[in-house]
Known about the structure:
Mean pLDDT: 94
Largest sheet: none
Strand content: under 5%
Shape: elongated
Distance between the termini: 72 Å
Helix content: over 70%
Order of helices and strands: HHHHHHHHHHHHHHH
Radius of gyration: 25 Å
Number of strands: 0
Oligomer: single chain
Amino acid sequence: xxxxxxxxxxxxxxxxxxxxxSTEDVLTELQRQGVEIxxxxxHKVCQKxxxxxxxxxxxxxxxxxxxxxxxxxxxxxxxxxxxxxxCWEDFASLVQKGIDDIRSNNRxxxxxxxxxxxxxxxxxxxxxxxxxxxxxDMQVPENVLPEDLFSWVQDVEMALTDQVDEFPxxxxxxxxxxxxxxxxxPSSATPILLNMKSAESIALFVLGETREADAIREQLxxxxxxxxxxxxxxxxxxxxxxxxxxxxxxVEKARQIYARGLAVATEDTETLRERIAEFA
Length: 280
């Protein structure tokens, strides 16, 4: 079996060669290797799999045909005939580039790439009528993505939320992202929807839309009254020590929210007491 480096080298050589051929000639080479294919059939197969690797692996070619040739031919034809289709490998490339940016501390560049990837994924979900992000995790070809989608969509939210304190201009992007996720994948698991709802309120607080933000926090506190952090996170938005938006400083409102939490919460109540004590 060829090494990974050898396979990669063979693929590059085949790509360079096939890119210099016409589409008709690439199809002819595939046909000579036993692959029954034409432009219309190629597009139909790609529309079914939405993956270069999955398509390349399905070809029934003559025994001994180079896998590098089959993959390279698929790549070249996809670039020419299937630019209208969502491609898992293209999506994965953007995700990985964003991960690389995060590791290099280039967070704004990562966010830009990830939001671009998100727009493609969202359009694909609407096309396929997928309403639960976990459905895609079951459908995406194996070993294509650098991480599962359930984790990645939350990484996008956290990247935006982490940066919005320093760059308030990201609040609109955070708001758009969290709302579009909830609209696109409303059947996803409850924890992920709650994270998106909480992040939506953060964006609204940064934007000064307190009525909408408070309504979301009221809902979260009503649904999870035992968890002190539903009240802590809300009160902190008005606490001058923790707030994101300086215009929202309101010690009495923060104190009232903490006190409401202390009256009903059963977890992390000590933190609520510490918050209230700060105002003494």
